Structures are given as structure tokens and as C-alpha cells.
């Protein structure tokens, strides 16, 4: 049995001067029957047998090619004669590839692509941000229109309440008591209050529109400027947020106006109900007076009939005497 160690270290049987070869790289073993095998000694760059990495001990065939680092071994000659001292036979070297300028070109192209990609990414981010701002402005514009429509509706409701309050006041002046008049005046005041709330809501909505227009104008100005105008863009965003908050406040005021309107409608309904109750009571009293008067007249008529009947009982004999005289 023969064992041959190959590596860059001087303590090996075969020394290979190759920087890619480990100090103790490869071990070749020939048994008593002449069979050869190869074992990699945990080298750094590994061993290739017929172009395939050597991972465990394998048996070698006479035509197998072993390469370690950049060196191809003529390992068959190591076992030809045991008497001759082992010397490294001539080996064919594979010179490592020389660095080329192509790598520099590739690196420059990669850097250029990175720069272009960064620019495109920034452009995409800017466009997305711009689209987001435009979408927010459109949403705010729609919300402003909705608030405007609600304010107009509140104003119309306030006018309707005013007309109803005026109608109630006229009815109170004609047919109701002083208490109903005071209630109608109170309803008038509540209608005026609801109208004032509607005016306030409309003013808040107009203010929100002005601030929205100011925010849009500030945004257009910020788009025309360079990156140094980012502070102005942030200010515009803050104004837009403030405008949104004002719009929410206007919506809350509109809700309060609606609640006041509903309250006024409830009070109006109560006043109408009180008026109906008063009219019903008045009708009942009138009906009672009519019935009482009818009863009195009926009693008087009955009494008159009774008196007439009594008189008629005493009158016939007198008439009979007169008839006798005439005969």
C-alpha cells in the first residue's frame, strides 16, 4: 500500500507551487492490488476529478484527470516506480485570467443603471404623491360641494320654518290666547336661531372653500419650485388639513343647526297640538252653550205649551155660552 500527499507545504510527498493549492491539499492511495483512490484533505479551493468536485474518497481510473488550483496533475506517474524518488512531474498550468477593463465597464454600467433607477424611482414616488394630493383635493372639493348643498338645504329649511313660524304667529294673533302668542314668538326666535346657524354653516363652508383654493394654489406653487420648496409644500398640506378640520367643524355646525331645526319643528308641533286642543275645547264649550240654550228654549216652549193648554181648558165653556146666545 502506497500513500502520496500533495500540497503546497514542503512536508508533502509532491510539492506544488500554486497559490490556489492548500498546504495539505490531496492524498492519493494505491492498495496492494494496484487500485488507486483520491481523498481531498479539506482544502480551501477543493479538488476536481474530470471537472467534478471531489467530495469524498473515490476510485481512480487511468484516464481520470485531477486538477487542484490551476494545476492539472499527472498522477499516473506517481505510482510507476517505487524505487525512483518522487519528484513533481511536469505539470500543465492554467494561468489565472487577467483582469480586464470589461469589469470596469460593467461596474460603470451598473452605477449608471442605479442612478437612472434612482431617478425613475424618485419620479414614480413624486408622481404617486402628486396623484395622491390631487385625489385628496378632489375629495375635499366633493366634500365642500356636499357641505354647500347641505348649507343651502339648511337655509331652505330655515326659511320654511320661518314661514311656518309666521303662520303660527298669525294664527296665534287671531285665535289663540296670550300663552299661544308667546309660544309662537318663541318658535319665531328658534327659527331665527336656526337661520343664524345655517348662515354660520354657510360662512364656514365658504371659508373652507377659500382655504381649499389657497391650498391648491400653494400646491401649484410648490410644484413649480425645486426641492428647496418642500417647506412650502408642508405648509400647504397643513393648510389643507386645517381646511379639512374647518370643513368638519362646519359639518358639525350644520348638524347642530339641523338639531335646532328639529327641535323647533317639535316645538311647532307642540304649539299646533296646543292650538288644536284649544280649538277642541272652544268647540266643546260652544256646543255646551248651544245645548244649554236649546234646552232653555225647549223648556220655555214646553212651558208656553203647558200654559196654553191650561188656558184652553178654561176657555171652551165660555165659547159654548156664546154659541147658545147666538142660537
| Cross-sheet strand order for the largest sheet | 2-1-3-4-7
Question: Low-confidence parts lasting 5 or more residues at pLDDT below 50?
Answer: 82-99, 318-327
Tell me how many strands there are. Answer: 10
Which sequence of SSEs, written as H and E, runs from N to C?
Answer: EEEEEEEEEEHHHH
Secondary structure class reads alpha+beta
Q: Proportion of β residues?
A: 5-15%
What does this molecule look like?
The protein has 327 residues and is α+β, with helices and mostly antiparallel strands. The chain contains four helices and ten strands. The protein has a five-stranded mixed β-sheet, with no helix packed on it. The radius of gyration is 59 Å and the shape is rod-shaped. The N and C termini lie far apart (197 Å). 20% of the residues are buried.
Explain the layout of strands and helices:
Layout: E1 2-7, E2 14-15, E3 26-30, E4 36-40, E5 47-49, E6 52-53, E7 58-60, E8 66-68, E9 71-73, E10 92-93, H1 101-175, H2 178-224, H3 230-314, H4 316-326
Parallel strand pairs: 1-2
Antiparallel strand pairs: 1-3, 3-4, 4-7, 5-6, 5-8, 8-9, 9-10
Helix pairs in contact: 1-2, 1-3, 2-3
Keywords:
alpha+beta, disordered C terminus, single chain, rod-shaped, five-stranded antiparallel β-sheet, five-stranded mixed β-sheet
Task: Quickly describe the structure.
By secondary structure, the chain is α+β, with helices and mostly antiparallel strands.
Amino acid at each position: 500500500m502506497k500513500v502520496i500527499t500533495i500540497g503546497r507545504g514542503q512536508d508533502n510527498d509532491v510539492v506544488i507551487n500554486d497559490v490556489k493549492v492548500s498546504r495539505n491539499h490531496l492524498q492519493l492511495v494505491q492498495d496492494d492490488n494496484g487500485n488507486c483512490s483520491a481523498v481531498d484533505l479539506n482544502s480551501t479551493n477543493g479538488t476536481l476529478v474530470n471537472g467534478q468536485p471531489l467530495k469524498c474518497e473515490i476510485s481512480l481510473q487511468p484516464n481520470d484527470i485531477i486538477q487542484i488550483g490551476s494545476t492539472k496533475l499527472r498522477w499516473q506517474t506517481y505510482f510507476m516506480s517505487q524505487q525512483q524518488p518522487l519528484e513533481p512531474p511536469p505539470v500543465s498550468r492554467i494561468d489565472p485570467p487577467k483582469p480586464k477593463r470589461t469589469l470596469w465597464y460593467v461596474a460603470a454600467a451598473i452605477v449608471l443603471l442605479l442612478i437612472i433607477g434612482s431617478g425613475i424611482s424618485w419620479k414614480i414616488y413624486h408622481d404617486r404623491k402628486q396623484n395622491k394630493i390631487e385625489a385628496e383635493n378632489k375629495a375635499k372639493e366633493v366634500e365642500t360641494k356636499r357641505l354647500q348643498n347641505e348649507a343651502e338645504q339648511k337655509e331652505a329649511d330655515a326659511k320654511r320654518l320661518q314661514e311656518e313660524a309666521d303662520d303660527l304667529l298669525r294664527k296665534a294673533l287671531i285665535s289663540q290666547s296670550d300663552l299661544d302668542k308667546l309660544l309662537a314668538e318663541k318658535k319665531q326666535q328658534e327659527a331665527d336661531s336656526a337661520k343664524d346657524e345655517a348662515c354660520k354653516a354657510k360662512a364656514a363652508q365658504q371659508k373652507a372653500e377659500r382655504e381649499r383654493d389657497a391650498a391648491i394654489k400653494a400646491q401649484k406653487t410648490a410644484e413649480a419650485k425645486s426641492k428647496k420648496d418642500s417647506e412650502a409644500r408642508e405648509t400647504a398640506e397643513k393648510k389643507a388639513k386645517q381646511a379639512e378640520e374647518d370643513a368638519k367643524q362646519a359639518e358639525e355646525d350644520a348638524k347642530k343647526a339641523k338639531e335646532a331645526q328639529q327641535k323647533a319643528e317639535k316645538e311647532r308641533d307642540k304649539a299646533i297640538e296646543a292650538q288644536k286642543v284649544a280649538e277642541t275645547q272652544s268647540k266643546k264649550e260652544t256646543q255646551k252653550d248651544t245645548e244649554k240654550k236649546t234646552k232653555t228654549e225647549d223648556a220655555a216652549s214646553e212651558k208656553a205649551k203647558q200654559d196654553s193648554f191650561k188656558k184652553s181648558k178654561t176657555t171652551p165653556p165660555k165659547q159654548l155660552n156664546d154659541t147658545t146666545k147666538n142660537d
